[in-house]
Design brief:
Elements: H1 5-26, H2 37-64, H3 68-79, H4 90-105, H5 110-189, H6 228-231, H7 235-268, H8 270-306, H9 310-313, H10 334-340, H11 347-350, E1 371-375, E2 394-398, E3 407-412, E4 415-420, E5 424-426
Antiparallel strand pairs: 1-2, 1-5, 2-3, 3-4
Helix pairs in contact: 2-5, 4-5, 5-7, 5-8
Length: about 425
């Protein structure tokens, strides 16, 4: 392999020079060209976008796939550009275990029949979860990855190039400053020998005539050398040095301005990235809403198949439980919740045929059986027979004979009404 040693040495020298200059800037020993405030704001905004995009991406991956080994496997398949094999979801695996247990324990027994019904519901939940993961990966995760692996890499590359252009510009400014100082010194002192190390040592080499041979010494005499005036740089030479430094500064300034404009355009494109991520975020919320609505519908159907009330399945137990039996409807957006989920029926609608609805004014609390309950979620009363609830408040509840077990009578001060059990945490 043919190595260009001159280019390699030149690149190494440039890298070392820039590293020294960057270190001096950090310690305040060298001047630094500052970017304007708008440009600095664009840089900070881009860095924040990149950092938060990485965090959101990683946490979304954890949400969709909690198993770390499965995530590593999917990452390797993606890097190898191979199709990820289909994986059974936890709900589908649970459904398979329940179906096998029902087959072995007896599908005609009450336990076996219940296992089969629950297994079918879990299978539907697993299928809904699979669809949600697939949709979220395409509509949300893929755009985030494309930004980090595509646009951000381009921005980072141009920012590094801009940093190098800025270092070159500052070096040219320092070189011109030293050249002008040396020119002024030479003009004032005349024959004073300038310090060539301060300007451009590679362009001026002081040498003396010596005898042949590497080991010979130069003998200096008190008499002036004939060629000595030719070795002293005149003010004209310093003028040439200043002109050359100014020309290099103009070139460096042009390259810096051009690179700054390119980088600025890329950084301003972060606004378009935010718009795209906003659209993807809406798609993610939509797919997640669909997924949870499907889960709610499947579990509601399962609950209807198993029995309309807990009292019918487990007679003799208290109607209230410390944990909600089903997820409550959203209290923050009643209109959206009503459009996607069925409304919980009132006590009067669930009363057996021929039985009159309860008259709350005539209802008296039983001598025993009242309990304190803490409200878990806000609840808006559907009619005058229900009691509106606020989260974390304490109320007194009790049940009445013939009342639907999913509801209780709640009292708060002089107000009384029906309250859903799923919104309460019964206290001992």
């Amino acid at each position: 392999m043919d190595f260009n040693m001159k280019k390699l040495a030149s690149d190494a020298g440039i890298f070392f020079t820039r590293a020294v200059q960057f270190t001096e800037e950090k310690f305040g020993q060298a001047e630094k060209t500052e970017l304007d405030a708008h440009f600095e704001n664009l840089l900070a905004r881009a860095d924040s976008t990149k950092n938060w995009t990485e965090k959101i991406l990683r946490q979304t991956e954890v949400l969709l796939q909690p198993n770390p080994s499965a995530r590593v496997e999917e990452f390797l398949y993606e890097k190898l550009d191979r199709k990820v094999p289909s994986r059974v979801t936890n709900g589908e695996l649970l459904a398979q275990y329940m179906a096998d247990a029902a087959s072995e324990l007896g599908p005609t027994t009450p336990y076996g029949k219940t296992l089969i019904k629950v297994a079918e519901a879990e299978k539907q939940l697993g299928a809904a979860e699979r669809d949600f993961i697939h949709t979220a990966s395409i509509s949300f995760l893929t755009p985030l990855r494309n930004f980090l692996e595509g646009d951000w890499k381009t921005i980072s590359k141009e920012r590094r190039l801009l940093q190098n252009r800025r270092l070159d510009l500052d070096a040219c400014k320092a070189r011109l400053k030293k050249a002008k100082a040396a020119e002024a010194k030479a003009t004032c002192e005349g024959d004073t020998v300038p310090d060539f190390q301060e300007t451009r040592p590679r362009n001026y080499i002081l040498s003396a005539s010596a005898s042949a041979g590497t080991g010979s010494r130069v003998q200096l005499s008190s008499s002036p050398l004939p060629c000595w005036p030719l070795l002293l740089p005149s003010p004209q030479l310093w003028n040439d040095e200043v002109d050359k430094a100014e020309q290099e500064l103009r070139v460096a300034q042009t390259e810096f301005d051009r690179q700054a404009e390119v980088t600025r355009l890329l950084l301003e494109g972060i606004s378009s990235t935010h718009v795209n991520h906003l659209r993807c975020l809406h798609e993610f919320v939509k797919s997640q809403t669909t997924y949870y609505a499907q889960c709610y519908r499947h579990m509601l159907d399962l609950q209807k198949q198993l029995g309309s009330s807990q009292g019918a399945i487990f007679p003799g137990t208290f109607v209230g439980t410390t944990e909600p039996a089903s997820p409550p409807l959203s209290s923050t957006s009643p209109t959206t919740a009503a459009a996607t989920m069925p409304v919980v029926p009132s006590v009067a609608s669930l009363a057996p045929p021929g039985e009159a609805s309860l008259c709350l004014e005539e209802v008296a609390p039983p001598a025993s059986g009242t309990r304190k309950a803490r409200v878990l979620y806000d609840y808006e009363a559907a009619d005058s027979s229900e009691l509106a609830l606020l989260a974390d408040e304490l109320i007194t509840v009790y049940s009445l004979p013939g009342m639907d077990p999913d509801w209780l009578i709640g009292e708060r001060g002089n107000k009384k009404g029906k309250v859903p059990v799923t919104y309460l945490e019964l206290l001992s």
